[in-house]
Amino acid sequence: MRIEVVRGGGSSARIDKEFMVKRCEVFVNEEFCKGCGICVHFCPRQAIVLSEDFNAKGVNVPIPAHIEKCTGCRLCELYCPDFAIAIREAE
Ligand code: SF4
Ligand code: SF4
User: Fold this and answer.
1) How far is CA 88 from CA 10, 52, 72, in A?
2) Residue 15 clears pLDDT 90, i.e. is over it
3) Beta-ladder partners of 40
4) How far apart are CA 49 and CA 34, in angstroms?
5) Phi (first) and psi of residue 69, to 5 degrees
6) pTM for this entry
7) What's the 26 CA to ligand 2 centre distance in angstroms?
8) Is the CB of residue 84 below 6 angstroms from any atom belonging to ligand 2?
9) Is residue 15 domain-resident?
10) Tally of structural domains, the chain
11) Pocket, ligand 1, Cβ cutoff 6 A
């Protein structure tokens, strides 16, 4: 999530930009996932990649290889055509 903090007023207002990264967890429903990689393609932070290993169904499912980069934007959820991936903010 991007936060912009505006200090001062009028034309002299200064904008400090901070980038806050949420702690998130990725859940993949391996019954639904077909390994198409759309979620990986649309992740703007390269937080998820397709596994190099096949699961029991012969599918390379997405894994959170760089979960520390995840902003919780949920684009992966939005673009997954099979509702197979979900992002949750960690407690
Ligand atoms: S989670 Fe969805 S978008 Fe990602 S690889 Fe699986 S089916 Fe494709
Ligand atoms: S929530 Fe956003 S940043 Fe995190 S894995 Fe999904 S697309 Fe990538």
Assistant:
1) 39, 24, 8
2) no
3) none
4) 14
5) -90, -10
6) 0.80
7) 9
8) no
9) no
10) 1
11) 28, 33-39, 62, 80, 82, 84-85
